[in-house]
Amino acid sequence: MTSRLKPIGSSAAIQGRVVYALLMREILTRYGRHNIGFLWLFVEPMLFTTGVTILWTLAKSAHGSALPIVAFALTGYSTVLLWRNMPARCIGAIEPNLALMYHRNVKVIDIFLARLLLEGGGATISFVTLSLFYIYIGWLDPPEDALTVIAGWLLIAWFGASLAMLLGALAEKNEIVERLWHPASYLLFPLSGAAFMVDALPAVAQKYVLYIPMVNGVEMIREGYFGEHVRTHYDIPYLVICCVALCLLALSQVAAVNRGITPE
Amino acid sequence: MINVERVHKAYPTRAGDRVVLDDISFTLGRGEKLGVLGRNGAGKSTLIRLVSGAENPTSGTITRTMSVSWPLAFGGAFQNALTGFDNVRFISRIYNQDYRENMEFVTDFTELGLYLREPVRSYSQGMRARLAFAISMIIEFDCYLIDEITAVGDAKFHEKCEAELFQKRVDRSMLIISHDTEYVRKHCGKFGVLHEGKMTFFYNFDEALEHHSFNLHLESH
């Protein structure tokens, strides 16, 4: 048994090294060594979220609850960065990295993982930093149940990562995926739960909107943040099943793409 | 040892699958040096990529029981937006080595000086070749795959390559492809000629060259 575990252990060590090397490379190619460099990793999403928060505040956005708009925007818009940016970074990720695939240990999945870690990490740092800042200046109360917030966040991240790998792999086979993802992500944004509370919707709509996986995650985060102050609706088993199914499908497509790769 | 067994490789094209390698088998033992000749597009680089494991054959198997380098080509495996040193760090991390020592070696070998802190895209072809070669030498392998490595660069660079590869590493296995038949003759003990997907093997260079020349002139008659 140990003899079988050993190669798995050394494979994991190699993959860890490769993903780390790709991650460091990605940070440099993307942010360079100019001005604030890799701080852009989370300053950029922070600017996004802050901008949306300001806009929504000025527009006195109707969101169907008594929540302060700042809290509402932060918990909603931050999640959009997760499921929208991860696929955007994985689509077309293979082409510029083809030369690296001369090295036998560099696989398609490593390129995806490095980008996902970077994108997910940036969105997470941005979410945490803004939360702490708003809590510090008193615009936001600390979450009532941090674990539920974390669970909701991780589930959306898992969903976003699976979706990203699936779309990234499919985009390699057919460029139509890239063309369609832009309008799709744009149209999904208002449906994703970022800009409404499920409870504010008519009962008929509630049933259908909960079929959109992200909505369940956003509701979880809001439940964790605001507890008794809001009525939330979500279905954890449904969200987990969606993630597992999407993840398996994604991994199979990544493996298929990996077999057909031709380093330039 | 590297064992290539009944390897086929086909690429999809608009006119259907194009067979590049058709039922190729050979073994490369420790210390053996195989030179492959063939026309442009005969499948030499494909063969090297398959042996390196960067790409998979359509059918057949390739087993490696010794460590095999990536295909050493004069320009390949670089990220143009990164500096020479960044590329050294990247390769060192992938192959689990201390990059500080490697940076020293690369500085000495390439004599690129301050250019090593500039993006690779600002390098000339010859500078790229120097960097590519130096990076290839920082990781020790049992077998080196060499793809036209001396196609660019000046005489001094060629001398240095010669010393690193064929004097310091005389005990290693090599798979060399080159259009420079003299280079292949000088460094290899076994020869393969690729033509229309088939590979014919020779132990005598003159016979291999004759076969290769015949293939080269075949279509002009």
Keywords:
heterodimer, A: 264 residues, mainly alpha, 9 helices, 0% strand, B: 221 residues, alpha/beta, Rossmann fold, six-stranded mixed β-sheet, three-stranded antiparallel β-sheet, 7 helices, 9 strands
Summarize the model shown.
The complex is a heterodimer of chains A (about 260) and B (about 220). In chain A, about 70% of the residues lie in helices and about 0% in strands. Chain A is mainly α and about 260 residues long.
Task: Give a written overview of the molecule.
The complex is a heterodimer of chains A (264) and B (221). Chain A has 264 residues and is an all-alpha fold. Chain A has one domain (2-259). Chain A has helices at 2-31, 40-58, 69-90, 108-137, 146-173, 176-191, 203-209, 213-226, 236-259. In chain A, helix 3 packs antiparallel against helix 8 (213-226). Chain A is globular and about 55 Å long. The model of chain A has no long low-confidence stretch (mean pLDDT 88). Chain B has a domain at 1-67 and 145-152 and 175-221: Rossmann fold. In chain B, helix 2 packs across helix 3 and helix 3 (99-110) packs across helix 4 (125-137). The model of chain B has no long low-confidence stretch (mean pLDDT 86). In chain B, strand 1 and strand 2 form a beta hairpin. Chain A binds chain B through residues 17-18, 20-21, 24-25, 28-29, 32, 99-106, 259, 261-263, and chain B through 11, 49, 52-56, 68, 70-71, 76-79, 81-82, 86, 89-91, 93-94, 96.
